[in-house]
Amino acid sequence: xxxxxxxxxxxxxQSRKFTPPVRKLTAGHSFPFPNPLVKSPGSSPQLLRKxxxxxxxxxxYPGAQLFPFPNKMGPCDVVLNxxxxxxxxxxxxxxxxxxxANSFNSLLPLSARRDQLASPGHHTIIDVPETADILxxxxxxLYQIPAERYAPSLDTLSNVLPTLVRYxxxxxxxxxxxxxxxxxxxxxxxxxxxxxxxxxxxxSIEHIAVAASRHVASIAAITEVEAxxxxxxxxxxxxxxxxxxxxxxxxxxxxxxQGHPPPASRPCDGTDQKVRRAWALATAYLAWEAxxxxxxxxxxxxxxxxxxxxxxxxxxxxxxxxxxxxxxxWAHVKDTI
Length: 337
Ligand SMILES: [Zn+2]
Fold this sequence. Notes:
It is a single chain. The protein is α/β, with parallel strands linked by helices. Among the domains are: 22-145, Potassium Channel Kv1.1, Chain A, CATH 3.30.710; 227-331, no CATH class. 42% of the residues lie in helices and 8% in strands. α10 (224-254) packs antiparallel against α11 (273-289) and α12 packs antiparallel against α13 (313-331). The longest helix has 31 residues, at 224-254. Zinc ion binds at residues 260, 268, 270, 272, 312, 314-315.
């Protein structure tokens, strides 16, 4: 028996539950096996395979309801076989050709015998070099089927984009804002922002790069290889984002609390010097520790204790107002490229 059992990809977030993209079928299963099994053009002569069991996609199997309306594209006429792990994906050549600028990397359309081969029970097998986890997401993207249940890892998604390009698809169409692939990639933006940014930048996928840039904490550790991968434009934009936010935060912190007219009967002179000194010290520390994605809560926790040492009611109100102003201003500083 030459079957393969696949347990699914390894998602980076171990807590996520995912659905393996394949299941094993044995001869006699209700799903029809490809028969005869005809290799793709240019490959070895027709051979009947002797497997007694095969691994088949849990989504792209014979008779799967892949479209909103039954039989919208007719029965599947192609079986994509992922060579590294031998998983069969039953697909429609019309769907694979739709949007492909190179006829699915010159593997389609099928030969002139297509009509004959596409009769019930007959499928043309096309061997492809991708592993099942990559091919699975590629097909989900082409068929516009939600794939979140597979929880594809960032490694898998990093291979999906070049695969789509290799098969002639325009990423502007398939990885558009709100698309399935976009959602899957952006799921990783918080945990791996720089990798997601680099991935998006390397294919000029603007909306993903913008979203990921918000979470990139530091540019100090960007390696030469990463800089080359993201390209000079996106590297420059990321550097500018961080520099601009650092400058903005320092500028915001420079503004001291307002004074008030000196009252005649109270000890405060209207510019409580203790408040100003404490503010200068606290903000100098914050400016020293400033980070482009410094959380507002961290700023608030540094400045709020100053209120405990102010006696004058008006100075206290002004200090409270200035703290709120800092937080509000910081929240409105542009945080994406
Ligand atoms: Zn005062």
